[in-house]
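User: I'm preparing a small set of examples for a lab meeting where we compare how different chains pack in three dimensions. I only have the primary sequence for this one, and I'd like the structure in token form so I can line it up with the others. Please keep the answer compact; I'll paste it straight into my notes.
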Amino acid sequence: MKHCPACEGARHYWLADGRFKCRACDHRFSWTSAWDSVRLSTLVKQPLLELFVLGVPSYRQRFRSPVSAAARERFYRLLRACCAQVEHLREPFDGALEFDETTFGGTRKGKRGWGAAGKVIVFGIIKRNGKVKAMPIPAHDRLSVMQQIDAHTREGALYYTDEWQAYATLKLRGEHVMIRKEKGRPVGRHPINGIEGCWSYAKNWLYPYRGVPRQYFHLYLGEVCYRFNHRDEDLKPLLFRLLKQTSIQQLRPILVRKG
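Assistant: Understood. Below is the structure token output for the 259-residue chain.
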């Protein structure tokens, strides 16, 4: 669906110069799908899409691919951006939700834990027996976590968390169940196994990439969430349709994240 970038309207005229004119605000705009923005033939893009679905990293294709490593990376980056865009636009969650935080990054010498160098802190939300959302946060503190909770959940939900004090004010938004742990293991009838299983899935999926560039980490995280949320479906037709329906102009702001 083609939407006007000025007012998000879906009704437009097609102009002779190839652009579109919005019926609501008269804004003229161009629209190119992510699939068409890649200057490779369909006979090349289709096998690349299938290898992406199978999880074959670009560096493992260097002797069998008809295109350069840079071209493969650009195509895969657009695929990941489409996945990240879908997950970012997902409606806020309600119902029974689990929260947790983790870090992503290779093992390094020096300080361990939340203050370890080179680590990216990620906050995750999963709806029990449902979808997951995960996003990088700048710091492991109450402000960063509550900003994501306010943005991605609805008031009145049932929250399951660990004993971290940053979650203490959740009782003002809904019902809060705190999971107590002893020696790292949950005690009681309500463990947060769902979000912890998602962390295991994500880290195992990212391991073969042998490191992820920090400026593109949010795209890889969006890809993992998309795969997790569609793990019982054939991804190839889903991703092909997504590339055809997503505008390259819409993806450009999220292709690189600085800082």
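A couple of notes for your slides: Residues 96-203 form a domain with the Nucleotidyltransferase; domain 5 fold (CATH 3.30.420.10). The chain has a mean pLDDT of 87.

User: Perfect, thanks.
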